[in-house]
Amino acid sequence: MKHIVVVMVFLNVNYGFSSYSQSVDIDEPHTYTPPKHYFQTSSFDEADLDDDTVKNPLDRGPYFDISASRNVTALVGNTAYLNCRVRNLGNRTVSWIRHRDLHLLTVGKATYTSDQRYQSVHNPALDDWSLKVLYPQPRDSGVYECQISTTPPVGYSMMLSVVEPITTIVGGPDLYIDTGSTVNLTCIVRHLPEPPPVILWTHNGEEINYDSPRGGVSVITEKGDITTSYLLIQRAKSSDSGKYTCSPSTANPITVNVHVLNGEHPAAIQSAHSLQSNLILAGCCCLTLLFLASALTSGERSTVR
């Protein structure tokens, strides 16, 4: 019986130690892990951002805040900004490098390239070190890296896309409409960072008045990644013929020729235009031949004398 009691006491003592050990593990403070969007990287791989694991977490020293987009789209000729937000920079410096040729563009606030379109802009309140690109062109598109002068250096890559907007009118450059039908001009604007604030329609160089006594003229604009503007003219008549121009405020204009037909066939109109062009060309050729013949005749007379 004594042996049994001793064993029970021993088990109770061990169980107490075991419980105590477990309670210490539960109450032990955890190591701080920074938010997922705070880490350093030198790889331009979007898959890294989707990883469930935090890569290279930094509890101290400089690190990148990559909560902003890594893709920047700029319009040709309009100033572009690539924003790099660096926390805890301390006495380190921030540089910008162009990946295409590994060219050093800026160091701190100084520009280190002969192309003065590249400038460094620092906003101390937000810890931002932005690369400013003046008058960007399509050739400026590519990967740029914001780099911190740690040992070894760490970088954060961004993609700049410089686009030139394209404006088109469906069915142009010539549209043939029957008298009394509805004219539907569809203007499409592509490759803009944001929709154009205004799209202006003109007829033969004059802005279209949607409240004119003629009536039946309206415009519908749908804005988005691709902006579409529809000009609708009901009960078309011959006076509605002419040049219509779609002019987005932030893109190139485009013009279409509208022909309102009074029973004519489009092929006949095109044949008439071709005949007129051919007659003009034939007239020019005749004049050229007459000039050459006159020159040759004058030359022969000079030789005889």
Characterization of this structure:
This protein has a six-stranded mixed sheet with strand order 2-10-9-4-5-6, with no helix packed on it. The termini are far apart. The chain is an alpha+beta fold and 305 residues long. It is elongated and about 80 Å long. Strand 4 and strand 5 (103-107) form a beta hairpin. It contains two helices and 19 strands. Helices cover 21% and strands 36% of the residues.
Topology:
Elements: H1 2-27, E1 63-65, E2 71-75, E3 80-87, E4 94-98, E5 103-107, E6 110-111, E7 118-123, E8 128-133, E9 142-148, E10 154-163, E11 166-169, E12 174-178, E13 183-190, E14 199-203, E15 206-207, E16 217-222, E17 227-233, E18 242-248, E19 254-261, H2 266-304
- Number of helical stretches of at least 4 residues: 2
Anisotropy-based shape: elongated
Q: Give the strand order of the largest sheet, numbering strands 1, 2, ... along the chain.
A: 2-10-9-4-5-6
> What structural class do the secondary elements suggest?
alpha+beta
Write down the overall mean pLDDT.
77
Radius of gyration: 37 Å
Total E-strand runs: 19
Keywords:
305 residues, disordered N terminus, single chain, alpha+beta
